[in-house]
């Protein structure tokens, strides 16, 4: 139970290279180094979301922790890095105080944006003098003052808020592009000009390739990559628990973005066979439309791969970032899986199909499937695993539905 216990079973090996972050139970952003699992929380409700799993991402802003004077593009205003007037979202005095010296403040980093590539920009903002409830315009475009922007309101209650904006570049590279932020007042929905002397506080700027925002990657002088989270159980630890003739798998998890397919939550597989013997469960495993929940069991029988069971639950009512439940019971020629999103639920059954070849399953993996040579192929792009259970017996169809009710 990752959400409740906030620790890993000692039989699970966790790996991740590069600095990363998560939100703790007090709403504080916690920065961690290599190989530290992250048990994340909702920044507003403080609810435990479970084990955070993300694909590899790179922060392209050279100075993300302290945006300001060190940025390479144009800027207007004065920037006081490491201000002591407020703590940053991580509880340190590393925030930047941005004081406007005229009525048109802006801050841009300059770089080339690649054609046909989605970029997501994000930053924490907090209102200072006269800016409570006003706006910050995020812009990703070929030049400063680009029309490619989004106005996002700054909290009026003096709290920090992480804002983000995504844009996909067209068919040509945009060179010397300005990527940054412009504070605006509430006149006309965020189009007015602030006054000289007004202030906002900023921290944790990030520019990454991807169509949604991931957790903050701290940078201070160069681009930094946070690599993929991997959690595996192997060898005798798996052999001691996995029953080759029957079983039941259950998880409760959420997926941050439903755009792409093949985002597995949990898999039993054969480390020596990239696409042979496995039982994979997750969001659109093996394909499918957005919001589909699927189970994919495969057997490597007589030298060829066989799809023994492939369920596809469509029209699930699945919502990005919202936890759902999924369970799968299996024997030879007797399989069933059920799901419950809180909006819809259903069960699929099958009376034919082989289990993975006896003795082939030697790995339990979270957040990806296939073996080590394909670890970055079809990862869980971003999500939270609240809990996982396995029984070495096949629960009845009625029990499957009861468990996820």
Features:
405 residues, mainly beta, seven-stranded antiparallel β-sheet
How would you sum up this structure, described in words?
The chain is 4% helix and 43% strand. It has helices at residues 2-5, 235-239, 397-403; strands at residues 13-15, 20-23, 29-32, 39-41, 48-54, 57-59, 75-76, 78-80, 96-99, 106-113, 118-127, 135-141, 149-153, 161-168, 174-184, 199-209, 224-226, 230-234, 246-255, 263-269, 278-283, 293-301, 304-310, 324-331, 334-340, 345-350, 363-366, 382-391. The strands form six sheets. A seven-stranded antiparallel beta sheet has the order 1-18-27-20-21-22-23. A seven-stranded antiparallel beta sheet has the order 4-5-28-19-24-25-26. The protein is elongated, with a radius of gyration of 24 Å. The two termini are 18 Å apart.
Q: What's the structural blueprint in terms of helices and strands?
A:
Elements: H1 2-5, E1 13-15, E2 20-23, E3 29-32, E4 39-41, E5 48-54, E6 57-59, E7 75-76, E8 78-80, E9 96-99, E10 106-113, E11 118-127, E12 135-141, E13 149-153, E14 161-168, E15 174-184, E16 199-209, E17 224-226, E18 230-234, H2 235-239, E19 246-255, E20 263-269, E21 278-283, E22 293-301, E23 304-310, E24 324-331, E25 334-340, E26 345-350, E27 363-366, E28 382-391, H3 397-403
Antiparallel strand pairs: 1-18, 2-3, 4-5, 5-28, 6-17, 7-10, 8-9, 9-16, 10-15, 11-14, 11-16, 12-13, 12-15, 18-27, 19-24, 19-28, 20-21, 20-27, 21-22, 22-23, 24-25, 25-26
